[in-house]
Amino acid sequence: MSIEVKGIILGLAAALGLLGAAFGLSPLFQPGTGANKEVRAKTISVAPTVTAAGDAGRGRILFDHNCAHCHGEDARGDEGPNLYNLAKSDARITAIIKGGIKGEMPTFAKKFSDEDVQALIAYLRTLKD
Fold first, then answer.
1. What is the pLDDT of residues 22-78, one digit of tens each?
2. Residues whose CB is less than 8 angstroms from the CB of residue 126 and which lie 6 or more positions away in sequence, other chains included
3. How far is residue 39's CA from residue 60's CA, in Å, rounded to a whole number?
4. Which residue in 16, 33, 27, 127 sits closest to 81, CA to CA?
5. Alpha-carbon distance 127 to 85, whole Å?
6. Contact 121, 59 (CB under 8 A)
7. Which residue from 35, 80, 120, 125 puts its CA 20 to 30 A from 15's CA?
8. Are 98 and 109 spatial neighbours (Cβ–Cβ below 8 Å)?
């Protein structure tokens, strides 16, 4: 075996060892686990947020791939209703997306996570005349 091959093998072994150590120590850095539990209990937890523009951009992509075929590419309605200037609450929109409308709209509860639904709502809120 050449010196170059041995060097590559040793490099890979070292990288895998570091990766294993990182995964082994990761519980210490997770909220509510290991040694970090006491520190987290004493601090205020703030959930990370994505900017509304970022959510709306991701929501637009989700809309294009899942909703546009019924609501139209511009969301002004086709088979489904126009989605501009929605007066419904976020909770009501969430219920409709997740539960669907019998005989009119399928349920997306299994397809979309809560974050996906929030991104869709952020996009829908940008649709104003």
1. 556 555 555 554 444 444 444 443 443 445 667 999 999 999 999 999 999 999 999
2. 56
3. 39
4. 127
5. 6
6. yes
7. 35
8. yes
- Outline where DSSP puts E strands in 1-129: none
Residue 84 to residue 75: CA distance in whole angstroms: 7
Tokens linked to 17:
């060892």
For residues 125 and 90, what is the distance between their CA atoms, to the nearest angstrom? Answer: 9
CB burial readout 90-106, b (16+ within 10 A) else e: eeebbebbeeeeeeebe
HEC per residue, 81-95: CCCCCCCCCHHHHHH
Domain spans in the chain, listed from the N-terminal domain onward: 3-42, 52-125
CATH assignment, 52-125: 1.10.760.10
Q: How far is CA 4 from CA 12, 13, 15, 74, 117, in A?
A: 12, 14, 16, 58, 51
pTM: 0.59
